[in-house]
Sequence to fold (518 residues):
Amino acid sequence: MSEITARNEPVISKKIDKFFIGLANAFKFVKRFFQEVWFPPYEFKEILRQCYEIGYRSLPLISLTGFIVGIVFTNQSRPSLAEFGAASWLPSLISIAIIRAMGPLVTALIAAGKVGSSIGAEIGSMKVTEQIDAMEVSAINPFKYLVVTRTIATTLMIPILVLYTDFVALMGSFINVNQNELVSLSTFFVQVFEAVSFLDVFSSLIKSLVFGFTIGIVGCYKGYNSSNGTEGVGKAANASVVMSMFLIFIEELLALQIVNAIRYA
Amino acid sequence: MHSDEQKKVVEIRGLKKSFDENHVLRGVDLDLYKSENLVVLGKSGSGKSVLIKLMVGLLKQDEGEINILGRNTHKLPLKELNKLRLKIGFAFQASALYDSMTVRENLEFPLTRNVKNLTRKEINAKVEGLLDSVGLPKTINQMPSELSGGQKKRIGIARTLILEPEIMLYDEPTAGLDPTTCIDINNLINQVREEYNTSSIVITHDLTCAKVTGDRMAVLIEGQFESIGTFDEVFTNASDPKIKSFYDYNFIQ
Fold:
């Protein structure tokens, strides 16, 4: 893929030029993904392998984090609700918080750290050791094999991981509520389902798709454009995490505005 | 020397390539004839690797023409360029084996993606045959990280041969190897030519490798070929001080 490069004489200043050139190259990269994703070869085997790596291998970390988030959030929310005699509303409050925001956000941030960095480092190391060039000279499309497959895998896996995190966090919350308020599992989940609407779950899943796409494409972009040997690989991994997290927060803010507009329309 | 009747498989004219202010190639002309091994010599950073990367379209030239098997690579759309790439084997300096794949998968990867309707038996036969011919049949299930530098180079060459190329490009095939392994790799380069009837360009700064593998030498100095001919024509009694210093430097090393 031909990259846009800086002119010898900067148009505004070297830093500003570099920023806009980076932006233009990132857009070209995303555009190429959407151009190539529809056409064969589809590399199903590699997509499945990546789904396993990204989804299944993230389960232990996601489980632990989700469970702890559920317990801690419930514990911290109790005093405020108890002050108004509303401790029985805990399941409703926690479920709304987890499904609307905490589940997707916590999962996406953890995946950005774990998956985004690993994609950035893996593709970065393939780039600097000429493995990507080796694919190209063998008439294999490296973009398709490396970028499209990983981005599809993160886009598919993050929503599934979010649903799983939601469940684990709610179980953590239930254990805490059960210990303190002696609420049964069925009562807890009746309250949860009463509080949560279709829009909450649907918007959370759509948001997670976007988060997953962001983590995949940013990791691939940073890895694909890494240079300067092993130092560049480290930088690519680091930049993948930082950029993914930054974009996830921006997307979360935008999603909040859009969903609220729909909810209160 | 080559008569005009001999078939040119590569014809390069007026090739120029710069990276910012660094003019790496300054108008290179080069011919490669059918079944010959041409060695491109030059110091590190002289543009040898850039030359072969331009040939396979990994880099784009600023000026000049590259004709490979009668096709102008610069003007080819990607689909056509990929068809041409199948006829060119590129052995990378650091082997560029895919880290996440076993040796078998490394060899199968370009084959299964470019040749359709092969049975498992045919694929196995091809992979095992190639590993036999590079002398490493036992490495088939090993990961690249378990191989030595020399073994990686051999597997890298085997991987390029799986598509039966007409032209082989070797980028520093003996770099970083001990003298004994260098001899093995040099012999392998000659063996590949005999068995697969390939025409090759060998990029190196190792004069021993050049002497053993090359029919002709081309010395790249400051972005241009200073001298092209047989080893004796180029180096024995070389009068050009740049070539003489390159020769002396190599043997003192």
Observations:
- Chain A has a mean pLDDT of 93.
- The interface with chain B takes residues 2, 8, 41, 122, 125-126, 129-131, 133-134, 136-140 of chain A (CB under 8 Å).
- Chain A has nine helices and no strands.
